[in-house]
Amino acid sequence: MQIIVLGMHRSGTSLTTRLINMMGAYFGPETSVGEITDDNPKGFWERPEVFKLNEALLASQSCAWHDLARWNNQSAVIPGNIAKNIQKIVLGIDAFRPWVLKDPRLCVLLPLWRPYLEVPIAVIVHRDPVEIALSLQRRDGFSLDKGLALWECYAKGIIAHTQDIPRIFVSHHELLERPVETCQRLYQELAELGVRRLAMPSDREITAFIDPKLYRSKPKGEMQLMTENQQILADMMEGKRPFSMALPG
After folding, report:
1. In a domain, 243, yes or no
2. DSSP track, 44-99
3. What is the average pLDDT across 180-185?
4. Neighbour count for residue 228 (Cβ, 10 Å)
5. Is residue 247 part of a domain?
6. How far is CA 190 from CA 81, 137, 179, 226, in A?
7. CA Rg, the chain, in Å?
8. What integer pLDDT is reported at residue 214 of this predicted model?
9. Across residues 89-113, what is the average pLDDT?
């Protein structure tokens, strides 16, 4: 199986990817973990070559992860060299199935990777959109409105691009508040979808890895900033509304 972790930047995809790796899913050689920063002291768990390819794909339409106004999947064409590199990456890690791959840009770019994925499973990580916007404000200086607009774009991408892929939902809040139970549920759902050769990490391993002190950027309660459409999207991302319903405009 090919496990794709999807979620907006700052939503907990790194923690989720590492937990799946701790279960036994292949991630890559040790050099693939990526940079460790103050904002992500546990590592980003993104393969650098995947990050670079996705950056190049966005740049092909004069876009970036935080500037998607000109992005159009319908007109996107993968340059030949990038397509070959995507195929090479997937073929290389397919020898180690089940494997796990994560990059928030895949929320937008998944259709361009989809032709190379035979049996993907989407693990969708949800975090309160206002928390994400606050985190982006603290890290990148974005306004809260811009952070929410970016989250909305990524959420719509996830909903639109996983219609034909089995989905598992993971809550960032539950992951930090109840790490062992959340990991157990994730493990069981992966097994029910046919992922083999995984094993639950010990409670001690899980709690040693997930540090609740990393739960920052919590809303203060007075910030009711989300639009009605964004709230509908948030309900979909939490699994409270079906993905099959029409996307809000």
Report:
1. no
2. ----HHHHHHHHHHHHTTT-BTTB-TT--TTT----HHHHHHHHHHHHHHHTT-SE
3. 96
4. 8
5. no
6. 33, 34, 16, 32
7. 17
8. 61
9. 95
Give the residue numbers spanning the domain of 182: 2-237
Checking if the pLDDT of 245 tops 90, the result is no
Q: What is the domain-level CATH number for residue 185? A: 3.40.50.300
Phi-psi category of residue 62: left, alpha or beta, with phi > 0 → left and psi -120 to 50 → alpha: left
Q: In a 3-state reduction of DSSP, which class is residue 173?
A: helix
Residue 180: C-alpha distances to residues 133, 199, 208 (Å): 27, 13, 11
pTM of the model: 0.89
| Alpha helices for 8-47 (secondary structure H) | 13-23
pLDDT at 240: 81
| Partners of 99 in the β-ladder | 2, 26
State residue 222's pLDDT score.
Answer: 37
Closest CA to 36 of 27, 48, 28: 48
Q: Is residue 246 part of a domain?
A: no
- C-alpha to C-alpha distance for 66 and 153, rounded to whole angstroms: 10
CA distance 85 to 70: 24
Specify if 198 maps to a domain. yes
Structural domain count of the chain:
1
Closest CA to 35 of 44, 26, 23: 44
Residue 216 reports pLDDT greater than 60: no
Q: Which helix (H) or strand (E) covers residue 5, if one does?
A: strand 2-6
Cα–Cα distance for residue pair 216/221, rounded to 1 Å:
14
Model confidence at 204, in pLDDT bands (50, 70, 90)? very high
